[in-house]
Amino acid sequence: MLLSVISMLCGSAVFAQVDSLSKAQIDSLYIGEVEDIKGAPPKVLHAEPLYIDLIRDLGARKGEKEWNLGFGIIDNIGFDVYEMLVEYEWAVIDRLGLEVEVPVTIYSPQMNGRNDSIPSDRVESLKLAAQWSFFVSEKWATTMALGYIHEFEFSDLDHFGKPLFEGQLFNPFFIIAKRWGQNWHTLIYTGPQVFHHFSHSGLMTRYEMHSNLHYMIPGTRNFMGMEVNKYFGDMRPDITLRPQMRLAIADNFMLGILMGIPIGKDEQRMSTFMRLIWEPGHTTSGSLKHPQKPRREGSRWNRH
User: Fold this and answer.
1) Angle at CA 158, nearest 5°, toward 154 and 160?
2) In 10 A of CB 4, how many CB atoms?
3) Backbone angles phi, psi at 64, to 5 degrees
4) E strand or H helix at 230, and its extent?
5) First to last CA, the chain
6) CA distance 240 to 72
7) What pTM was computed for the model?
8) Rounded distance between C-alpha atoms, residue 256 and residue 259, angstroms
9) Helices (H), strands (E): how many in the chain?
């Protein structure tokens, strides 16, 4: 219901501003604002998932940067989980993005829950990550990237600092994204996660496979879509559906809202998550306010 109302408002605002243009022209003008920047390397506009987000835009250009604040609630049997995160990401050179993130988890017992049955609150980790877009094709509206995340896992707050770190996570990943036409976006994010606990000699491994489908509202940065997070390990698969939407509040400020619907999790019910996205220095040329001739699709093809 909320997603429908906001999407209608977003769409109405855009079309009121450019009611003399066709939908195809509106989309083409906006895509051109992102992709056709004189002197900049090729870049394809893709919708970015909101829960397992990317280290930086695919095909990132040097100087791009972004702050994220995230807040979420998970309804578990017996206790609630409150998720918070702060992250900063930036492109140090064309197509190479870096990220630093610190997530925090707080547990709260429910009325019928027991205090001794809930985990300890945690500053989860110090997360360092890099992502390199090695293939960018405007002709095929496709981008591929390789990335790596390394997390230093903090100990529980109950005995924080004794030791400071209790383990580390190794997480290489691969991304392939494609825009179909001008509005539909698909993305696959996949790779292994290997956790080394300092008090144990062995390694714990699981495989992640996240698939995404989004529809971007014509001429805007707003979208609606579905993110499906899947993890495969020794136990049964861990699958969560995350319907979501992103709304541009200002030129450089966006709000992401999503729900979590677990599949086959007896101990977990619904969840919600919100992401505040601020891009310092981000501007657009304003071509929707001053319409020009639509861009020609597939004008360049570049591969590195």
Assistant:
1) 35
2) 10
3) -65, 140
4) strand 223-232
5) 43
6) 15
7) 0.83
8) 11
9) 2, 14
Strand extents, DSSP E, 77-222: 79-93, 96-109, 122-123, 125-137, 142-154, 165-180, 184-197, 203-216
* CA gap 227, 214 in Å, rounded: 8
| Half-sphere exposure in the Cβ direction for 187 (13 Å, CA) | 29
In the DSSP assignment, the letter for residue 116 is G
Is residue 293 within 8 A of residue 282, CB to CB? The reply is: no
Tokens of 202: 């062995």
Sole residue written with tokens 């079309």 = 15
Half-sphere exposure of 238 (CA within 13 A, CB side): 11
Choose among 250, 270, 267: nearest CA to 259: 270
Residue with tokens 């049955």: 117
Q: Which of 258, 244, 248 is nearest to 278 (CA)?
A: 248
- Using CA atoms, how far apart are residues 262 and 279, in angstroms rounded to an integer? 31
Consecutive H or E run containing 248: strand 238-250
* Angle at alpha carbon of residue 163, lines to 158 and 167, rounded to 5°: 100
> What residues contact residue 224 under an 8 Å CB cut-off, 6+ apart?
3, 7, 214, 215, 217, 243, 244, 245
Nearest to 68 by CA among 81, 49, 87: 87
CATH class of the domain defined by 2-283 = mainly beta
Q: What is the pLDDT along the chain (304 residues), one digit of tens a residue?
A: 545 544 554 554 444 444 545 666 666 666 777 777 777 899 999 999 999 999 999 999 999 999 999 999 999 888 899 999 999 999 999 999 999 999 999 998 876 656 667 888 999 999 999 999 999 999 999 999 999 999 999 988 877 778 889 999 999 999 999 999 999 999 999 999 999 998 887 899 999 999 999 999 988 899 999 999 999 987 789 999 999 999 999 989 999 999 999 998 777 889 999 999 999 987 654 444 444 443 444 333 333 3
